[in-house]
Amino acid sequence: MRIYTRTGDGGETGVIGGRVLKDDIRVEAYGTIDEVNAFIGEAIARMDPRKYEDVIRDLTEIQHELFDAGADLAQAGKKRTYRVTDERVKRLEQWIDRYDAETPEIRHFVLPGGSAVAAALHVARVLTRRAERRVVTLCRQQETNEAVRRYLNRLSDFFFVLARVANAREGVPDVEYKRGGQVFR
Questions:
Q1: In terms of C-beta density within 10 A (0-12 exposed, 13-18 middle, 19 or more buried), how is residue 50 classed?
Q2: Entry pTM
């Protein structure tokens, strides 16, 4: 199979149902989700498999689900069966609760950083927020799978908790924002 097709040289790309410009909101949305997926790979590459076996397993599942989310968004405006469902959102909530039990109590906002793994997970978190913003715009403009928006919202929370878990497992304290008062009680 040849990797290059030359069909996108004019600034268009293929989506389910036809061709659109590469800066179409639909392409922006699933393209940003692809960025998230790449940074998940970066985070996994930094993890010691013995220390992070459970996290790697869950993140790999999320990588597959992000491909599903991209497929759902690539058919925006079409009546199809979607892959990302609210059951996946609920499962993320369960994972958040399970992993959060490993972290120390939080009283201040947390700055991105600490260990290398945590820093990579924070990058995935902020990219997920950007993807969510792109999906919000898409949902306003076209009919699409709104469960993807909810999934991304929860996923950014999941990355925040995982970054704190990484710091805890590495024995590195979270970097607290010190210029504000205590915000969590």
A1: exposed
A2: 0.92
